[in-house]
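Hi L.,

You mentioned the student needs an example of a multi-chain input paired with its predicted structure. This one should do, with 618 residues in total across all chains.
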Amino acid sequence: MSLVVVGSIAFDAVKTPFGEREKMLGGSAVHFSLAASFFTDVRVVGPVGDDFGDAEYQVLHDRGVNTDDVEHVAGGETFFWKGVYGWDLNDRETLATELGVFGEFEPKLSEASKSADTLFLANIQPDLQRQVRAQCDGAKLSGLDSMNLWIDVARDSLVQAIGEVDLLFMNDAEVRQLTEQPNLVRGARALMEMGPRAIVAKQGEYGAALFSGDSFFALPAFPLEDVFDPTGAGDSFAGGFLGYLAAQGAGAAEDEGELRRAMTYGSVLGSFCVEEFGTERVGRLTREEIDERFDEFRRITAIEGVPAS
Amino acid sequence: MSLVVVGSIAFDAVKTPFGEREKMLGGSAVHFSLAASFFTDVRVVGPVGDDFGDAEYQVLHDRGVNTDDVEHVAGGETFFWKGVYGWDLNDRETLATELGVFGEFEPKLSEASKSADTLFLANIQPDLQRQVRAQCDGAKLSGLDSMNLWIDVARDSLVQAIGEVDLLFMNDAEVRQLTEQPNLVRGARALMEMGPRAIVAKQGEYGAALFSGDSFFALPAFPLEDVFDPTGAGDSFAGGFLGYLAAQGAGAAEDEGELRRAMTYGSVLGSFCVEEFGTERVGRLTREEIDERFDEFRRITAIEGVPAS
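Structure written out for the whole complex:
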């Protein structure tokens, strides 16, 4: 079983009411890879510049992530994002976006990546997502994330990209925006008609909802007293989700029970991500901690109660 | 077992993208009473004017609600609220608030109401809530709802009122506002320190969260493709919650399992409320429909899946 993810590899500068970091490892493909690495073999594809060094690679290698397809663009700078969060961590302001080598990114996948069983197209321009999807034509399971920017400037391409994957991950506001449907249930059904067999609507501090066929499932976010940095939560969620599902083998995405466990592992990884800055918490996470929190999710969602273990 | 609710009895004029009603029965005590009536005997306390007639009483009597303590103020007008909802049903604009007889409301409870086992203080001025709480000093279980207005203009009174009840129902934004705590978990803990043994944070379309002791439980809202009118959803939730709990007898509020079932019945009643305008849907609801939807909640929240019945 192997999983390949294509997306951004970045340096982030983040300030929240609880502290700040001037330059730390980030990017959608990085957060996704680290989360997924607890479940399956992961290959990460994305461009970096001269400023990306051994320390950054080490974070990925420590989790066993294969970086053979990380493209080093000589003379370039790694994608840089700077943002600030207020007390309401749902609101963030972007202070700087320097695309660097990411601006000219043309994904080139090795044969090993092309033959991966599972593919995740992290949030990049939808035409690039489609190029990657076409290269990985043997992938038995594929997922895609996007953002409001692409709905605004590349709607038709995004709709086509969505039509070519099995699973779609989106914020609930983006589901509404893309489908022009204020009701989330109707919006998710409209997205399934575009192609994907399941839609995961991410709802930030409220958790996430899963629409698959006629089924519906929703999970709250893990109740945390301290959220230090929400950056990367959605990608960590997707990494936990798709990493778990990839490890279950063919047909898992058609199994409602497996999808619900994937939702739960996604929520577990997302919750650990936000406990510290950037990749700090997930970088030293253990499988035992993941499974403990999975059990906690069973307890906090069981109407009939689950005895403490 | 009997449950008394003190709050507003009103006429509402509501416009949503799906239709409008110029004058229909509403008010927090009405929505609460109808929802609670499926579980226990309910007495409703509140003032009405000359415009409140047989047709309005009939809606309450059809559900067996005791209206002996509805105070008819001769020459007065019933509380009137007019509001409009946009496509995003989370946002509403108040177009008119005519307090009428509600502006001079001084709750007067009969001996029968004073001796009720369970008391719900719907959203009214917190000093009035305290007066009622003092009159019902034998109530073994009490709950309170409030709103942002009272946090703004009567904060100290509200804090005292909260200190005198067992259960607090509030929107999550109000939990944050009252406690000046952006983190909901910390906000709920701060509220428990004021007195209540459990806090229910209502989250609108995202459902509701329950904090009790060290326990946490969260339930999504029922996935509806058509939400016609959100007015009264929170009071219907509280009615289902407290009505169920009252029917379970002494000690139920100390039982985490009973609290979780109460959360679920509350969510069931809230979900039916919004399916049509005002009291239309709950007014003709059946216990069988309630129990079917309770089972649906088990299915949409079970990580490990629940077989369809």
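You could point out the following to them. The interface with chain B takes residues 17, 87-89, 182-186, 189, 203, 205-207, 209, 216-220, 223-227, 256-257, 260-261, 263-264, 297-298, 300-305 of chain A (CB under 8 Å). Chain A has a mean pLDDT of 95.

Best wishes,
N.
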